Amino acid sequence: MKKRTWNSYILCICMVGLGCTQEQKDYSAIDLTTSWAEMALYITQFTPANSPTFASRCLGYIGLTMYESVVHGYESHNSLAGQVNGLATLPLPNPDEAYSWELALNSGQAFILDSIYVQTSDENKAKIDSLENVFYRYYSQKIKDQERIDRSVAFGKEIAKAIFQWSKTDGGHRGYLRNFDKDLVHPERPGSWKPPLYAQSFSHHPLHPHWGENRTFVAINGEIPTPEMIPFDTTAGSPYYQQFYEVYQKEQELTQQEKETAIWWSDDPDDTFTPPGHSYYLATIGLEMENASLIQSAETYARVGMAVADAFIMCWKWKYHHFSERPNTFVPRFIDQSWESFWPDPPFPSFPSGHAIQAAAAAVVLTDLMGAPFAFIDSAHVGRERDELRETDFVERSFGSFWEVATETADSRFLGGIHTHQDNQVGLDEGSRIARNVNSLKWRN
Amino acid sequence: MKNAEGNPIFMKNLWMVEYCLPDRYLIPLYLLFLFPCTLIGQTPFTEITAQAGIDHQFIVYEGMFGGGICVFDLNKDGFEDLFLTSGMNEDVLYLNQGDGTFKNIYEGSGLEETRKYVTQGVSGADVNRDGWVDLFITTITTKDSTQKIPRSPNLLFLNQGNNTFLDVSQQFGLADLPSFSTGANFGDINADGYPDLYVGNYFRNYEGDLTYINDQTIVNANQISQDFLFLNKKGKSFQDVFESYGLDYKGYSFGGIFTDFDNDGDLDLFVNHDFGYKATPNFLLENLYPQKKFKDISEEMELDLKINSMGTAVGDFDNNGFLDYYLTNIRFNAFMEHQGPGKPFVDRIVDYGMDFFTISWGANFADFDHDGDLDLFVANGDLNPNDHPMGDFYFENTERGYVEKANEMGLKDYGIGRGSVVFDMENDGDLDILVINQKAVMEYGPSTVTRLYRNDSTKGNWLKVDLTGTQSEMNGLGSRIEVVVGKRKMIREIDGGGSSHLSQNSTIAHFGVGEVDMVDSVIVKWIGRDSQVLTDQLVNQRIEVVEPEGHSQNMSIDKLWPFLGGIGMVWVVYFLFIRRKTIRE
What we know:
The structure holds two protein chains of two kinds.
Chain A: H1 6-19, H2 29-45, H3 52-70, H4 101-116, H5 122-143, H6 146-167, H7 239-252, H8 256-264, H9 274-290, H10 294-322, H11 327-334, H12 354-370, E1 376-378, E2 397-399, H13 402-415, H14 421-439
Antiparallel strand pairs in A: 1-2
Helix pairs in contact in A: 1-2, 2-3, 2-4, 2-5, 2-9, 2-10, 3-4, 3-6, 3-9, 3-10, 4-5, 4-6, 8-13, 9-10, 9-12, 10-12, 10-14, 12-13, 12-14, 13-14
Chain B: H1 14-20, H2 26-40, E1 45-47, E2 69-72, E3 81-84, E4 92-96, E5 102-104, E6 117-125, E7 134-142, E8 155-159, E9 165-167, E10 179-187, E11 196-204, E12 228-233, E13 237-240, E14 252-259, E15 268-274, E16 283-287, E17 294-296, E18 311-315, E19 324-328, E20 330-331, E21 334-337, E22 346-347, E23 358-366, E24 375-380, E25 393-398, E26 401-404, H3 406-409, E27 416-423, E28 432-438, E29 451-455, E30 461-468, E31 480-485, E32 488-493, E33 509-514, E34 518-525, E35 531-538, E36 541-546, H4 557-584
Parallel strand pairs in B: 30-36
Antiparallel strand pairs in B: 1-29, 2-3, 3-4, 4-5, 6-7, 7-8, 8-9, 10-11, 11-12, 12-13, 14-15, 15-16, 16-17, 18-19, 19-21, 20-23, 21-22, 23-24, 24-25, 25-26, 27-28, 28-29, 30-33, 31-32, 31-34, 34-35
C-alpha cells in the first residue's frame, strides 16, 4: 500500500521543478498525469474565494481537458465531443501527422488551469508555467522533432481553448465572483434554512444559490427528478423529528475515532482542496497504485471530475429547491436549546448532503474503473495541526474499497452534527446515479 | 438545557417562547410584553428618545456591522455629549443642552468628512493634550464605493474647543492605511501621558497588494488581518508598533479594550475576535511596561475563548478588587470571573443562570440602582439580515445573584441592538442608557431605532469622580478608582473605548453607595504613576480630581507597599517601646 501526504505533493512538485537544473530524471506517464492533478489541487486550495461548488466545476473541465488532449492517440477510446452536453465538436488532430500525446496533455493542462483559475495569484501562475516547462523539456528532448513538438503543444492548447470556451456558457463561469447573492430572498417556511449561528463563513447568505441552474456535463444528469424529503414535523418521535434527534443524540456520545472521522472529511474550502478535491486526490492514489497508463489516468480524472461536478450541480439544485434547515436550527428550537454541532455549519441549506453526493459519485466511478475491493490508505490531511478546540488529530484512514470512502464521508457529516441521515442517504443514492450516467458514456469501443 | 432526568427543557426564557411560535403569533406577543411597561408607565427606566430629541438609526452596509457611541464632553460644560456612528446613514453629533434634550450639530462641526464613509465604531481621547476630547472613528469602506474591496482609512478629528473639529487623519498617517475596521480603544500603554490607540480590523490590505490576490475576491476570501497598535507620538502622529510590541496574530477582530486586569498599574490589552472557533481566539496580552512589549497570556488565563466575541463589559461585579469581563457572543455570552492573582478566569454564565439564548453585542456594567453592586445591561439583536426579534437584557445584581428584569425595568426593546453606553445625561447622579439599533434589512415587526432610557429608579446615594490628568492621560483613561465604604471597596476603570460593542461609556466614574452619606476614601490610581487618596467625601456629588503636579512615574501603590510596610513596622516597634517604657514608669 502506498501513502502520500498533501505536503509530499507540494514537495514532489518542487522536486519536479528542480529536475530541470539537476540531472535529468525519467518521467513516466503516471508522473505526468498525477503531477498535473496535484497542481490542479494546489491551485484549488490556494486560490482565494475557494468554494466546493466552483472547485468541482473546475475539476470537471480540467479532467475532461486531460482526456480530450490524449484520446486521439488511442483507438480503444472515444472522444466525448458529441457526447457531453452541448459540446458538439472539438479540434481534431491531423491523422497524417505524428503527435506526442504527453506534450499535448502538458500544454492542455497548463492552458486550462491558467484560464479557469484566471483569478489565482501570479505566484501560482508561475508554478503552473514551471511545471509545464519541466515536462516540455523532458518530452521534447526525447522527441527531438521540433515540428512534431510544436504540433503536439498546439493541439493540447487548442483542445483546452475549445473546452474553456464551451465552459463559459455553463452558468458557472467565474462563479467565485458571485459566491453570495446579496439580493436573494430567503424562503420562509417551517423547516426552512436559517443562516447559521455556529458558522464556517460570515456570510448571512447561502453559497451559490443559482448553481443548480448550471449545465451538467451529462445531459441526463440534469433531468434526474428532485428527491423528496421527509415532511416537516416537530412532534417528538415523528420521522422528521427523529432525524434530528439522532444527530443530537450522537453528538453527546462521539468517540475519539468518530471525532477524527468528522474532522478528516470536513475539507473546509478555506484550509483545504475541498471535498471534490479530496475525490480527485483519491483518483491519484488509485492510479499510482495501478501505475496507470496515460489514457487510463486521463479517463479516470475526466470521469471523477465530471461526476463530482454534476453531483454538485444537482445537489445545489435540490438544496435550493427544498431550502432545508440544518440540525443547528432544528435542535436548539425543538430539542435542546443549548445544543451546538461538533463542527460549524457551512453557509448553505442541508438536503441533500454535498459531501455524500460527490463522494458517492467519485466512488462509483472509481469502483467501475479499478474494481470493488481496493485497499488503500488516505493520508491527505496527515501532518495538519491538531484541532485544539475539538481536541482531535488528523489521523490517516484505511479503506478496503472506494465505496467505504463514500459512506464514511457521508457519515462524517452526521458525526459532525451538520447533516441528518436522510441528507446523507439521498446524497449517496443520487451521487451513485449521477456517476452511473457518467460511466455509461461511450468511453471505449 | 436539560433537567435533572436529562430530558430537554423547553422555553427557558421569553425569547425562546417566541422562537417556538410561528411568526404570525409574534406581533401580538410583543404587544403583550410591551403593555405592562407602556400602560402602567411606572417602569424604573423611561424611554425618552423622542422627547430628548434623539432621532437615529444605524443603516448596515451589506449585512455587516455597527455601530457605536462615544460619550464625551464636547464643550466642557459638564454635560456629556454624544457621537453616534450610522453606517450608511449620516452620523450624528448630539450636543447635550443641559435641559434633558440633545441637538444634532453634526452639520458645520467639521466632522462631515464621515459622510463619505461607512462608519462603524468611535472612541474619544485627548490625543494632543490640549484639554479637549478628540474623536477617532473607524470605517469599513466608502459609501459611494465603486471599489470591489471594502476598505478605507479611519478618521481622526481634533476637537477645536468651539464645537468644531479638524480632520487630521492625513497628518496622523491614517490616510495610507485603508482597512475594514471595527472597534478602537485608547489607552496610554507607555505612560507618557499621550493616549495610544488599538484598532481592530476585520479585513485589511493584503501584503503585496493584488499580486497575491487578483480580482475582486478578497471579501469572499476570508482573509483575516492584523490589527493596528498605534503609539501616539507626542500628539503629532501615530506609529504602528503592532509587531515591535510582540503582537503577531491575525483574526476577525472586533477591537479590544485596554484594561489593568492584573492590578499592576499598567494597561493590558484584551482583544475580541469574531469566529474564534474557526480563525483566531480572543487574546489577553499583558503589558510588560516599562518594556515595550505585550506578552500573550490568553491560554494560561483561559481567556483564549473561541467564540464570536462581539464586545466586552468591564466591572468588578463581586467587589473583590479584581475586574471581571462579560463578553457578548452568538447564542450564549461568557461571564469571565476573575479568580484572583495568577489564576485563570472562569466562565460563570451557566452557574449564574445567565445562559439565555440570544445574539448579544453591547454590554455595560453599572450600578443602576445605587445599591453598591454592578448591574448589567446587554443589547441584543439578530444578525441583519435575519431579523428575528430579540429583546435586550437587564440583569439586576441581587442578593440571589443576577436576575433578568428587562421587561419590568422598561428595557425590553426588540430592536436590532448593537452598541450601548451608560452616562448621566441630566447630571442627576444616576446612569442612563443609550442603545443603537440597526434598521432591519428584511421585514421586521417591532420598531428598531436608537433608544435613550432615562433612569428614574434610584433611591440610594451616589458619587461621581471625574479625573483630570496633568502628566497622565488628560481624562485618566484606564485609571483605576476605588471607593471604600466601610468594608466594601468598589472599583471602576475609566473606559478608553472599544467597550460594549464598538463604543465608549462615560469617562466619569460612577458609584452607587446606598444609604451612606459619606464615603471613607476615594483612591485614584493613575496609569503608571502614584496613587492619590481623598478621604471622607460627601456623597451625591461629582468630585473633580486633578492629578498633582510633579506626580512621579512608575510608582504604583503596589510598589509602595513594602515601603509603607517598613514604616508601619518601625512605628509599631516604636509604639511598643514607648508603651513598655510608660508601663515601667
